[in-house]
Each structure stands twice: as C-alpha cells, then as structure tokens.
Amino acid sequence: MAPVKVFAPNTRISTAAIRVVLCLEEVGAEYERVNVDMATGEHKSPAHLARNPFGQVPAFQDEDLVLFESRAIGRYVLRKFKSSDVDLLHGSSLEESAMVDVWLEAEAHQYDKAIVPIFYQAVVIPRFYGGTTDEKVVEENLEKLGKVLDVYEARLSQTKYLAGDFFSFADLSHYPLTHFSIKIPQVAALFEARPHVKAWWESLESRPAFKKVAAGLPQ
Ligand code: GS8
C-alpha cells in the first residue's frame, strides 16, 4: 500500500500542516511530504483546490480518500494508525474520548482564537510580509490568551494533561502555534506565570516525536 501523503509547503511555516505531521510521527506512520509552493500560489491551483477547496494547506491523501482541515486529518491518522500502545484519541473509553474532544474544541475555539492574531501580528507580518506589528491587536489578544491560560492552569493543576492523566491529541494540537509564539516575550511571560501550564508545555517539548519535528522547522 502506498504511504499516505501530506501536501504542505517545505519552506513556509504552516502550523496546521505541522499538526498533521506530528500525528504521523507520534504513531510512527510512513508518509510522503508533497511540497506546495505557496510563493507561486500553488495552493490556489486547480490541482490543489481539488484537494482543499479553500485553497489552503494542508491537504492529505490516503489512496482514494482526500482530506483537508488539519484537526480532521489528525483524527483520521490517529484512528487509522492507532495501536495498543498509541491511541491519542482514547477511543476505547467513552468518557476519556469525550474529554479529548472537549479540549480539542477548547484548542480550536478558545486557544487558537487568541494566539493566532498574536502570532500573525508579531511573527508573520514582520517576518514574511515586511510589515509592522499592530501592537493594539497583540495587546488585546494577550489579554484574551491570559484568560484562556488561567482556565488551563486550573485544569492542569488537577490533571497532568488536558484531557486527563494521559497525553492526547488535545495536547498535541496546541504544539505548532505555541512552538513559534512562545518565542514572543509577552507570550513566554504568560506561560512563566502559570507553573502548571509551564510544566505541561515542557512535557510536550520533550516528546521525541515533537523534538524530531521541531528540529526540521525554521527558527
Ligand atoms: C486552517 C488552514 C490554514 O489556515 C486547518 O487545516 O486546520 N483550519 C485549517 N492554512 C494556512 C496556512 S497556516 O497553516 C493557509 O493555507 N493559508 C493560505 C491561504 O489562506 O491562502
């Protein structure tokens, strides 16, 4: 059987594509990376639009099945390649898988909402578009992120990971944006001020699959 394929840029940062690659690495799946040259607009080409109708990366292919949306792709990968050792969705327990879903939703609708504008303003605009950071947007979203992280701090003072005392897709899903955004001093300060969040982040960073993926990312 042919390896599954991830369509993502080789040189540009795509935090959504990194989410998918982390899932593949965690389960030890064989996969092929297919470069999408965003600099020439390849993500808007008919061939790529057939894979991702929103003209975004990543896209994913497993034989005749073509998927987009990184969290959905991640779920598919984790179901397809799960083993008795690795099941990051905890599908055999109704309660545990529900908690994985809860914290995945929190990541997508609370954490992501606050951290994306910070990452975009403080990293993407100056670095990739030569523009100027809108400090007001950064400030507003740092306040939002602080409130989200207060909820996380309370949760992580009760359980080692977000969904419970087990590492799951909910934790993994936070990694890509945090990896880049924690280099922004004000974001780092939010993590430093919350000891359980800080310890949680350190435990994610020390995972072998994460270290491997991080080593291949732009600084
Ligand atoms: C977001 C994809 C996305 O924003 C997912 O897959 O999780 N909800 C989707 N992709 C960005 C790159 S950041 O990963 C992208 O393709 N931007 C180019 C564009 O929108 O034209």
Compact overview of the structure:
The protein is α+β, with helices and mostly antiparallel strands.
Question: Gyration radius, to the nearest Å?
Answer: 17 Å
Largest sheet, if any? 4 strands, mixed
On the 0 to 100 scale, the average pLDDT is 97
Which strand order does the major sheet show?
A: 2-1-3-4
| Order of H and E elements | EHEHEEHHHHHHHH
Overall structural class, as computed from helix and strand content, comes to alpha+beta
| Portion in beta strands | 5-15%
Task: Summarize the structure in words.
This protein has 2 domains: 4-80, Glutaredoxin; 94-212, Glutathione S-transferase Yfyf (Class Pi), Chain A, domain 2. The model has no long low-confidence stretch (mean pLDDT 97). Helix content is 56%, strand content 8%. It is globular, with a radius of gyration of 17 Å. The N and C termini lie far apart (35 Å). The relative contact order is 0.13. It is built from 10 helices and 4 strands; from the N terminus they run E-H-E-H-E-E-H-H-H-H-H-H-H-H. Helix 1 (15-27) packs across helix 10. The protein has helices at residues 15-27, 46-49, 70-80, 94-128, 135-156, 169-172, 175-181, 185-192, 195-205, 208-215; strands spanning 4-8, 31-35, 59-62, 65-68. With 219 residues, the protein is of the alpha+beta class. The chain has a 4-stranded mixed sheet with strand order 2-1-3-4, covered by helices on one side. The structure holds S-Hydroxy-Glutathione (GS8). S-Hydroxy-Glutathione binds next to helix 1 and helix 3.
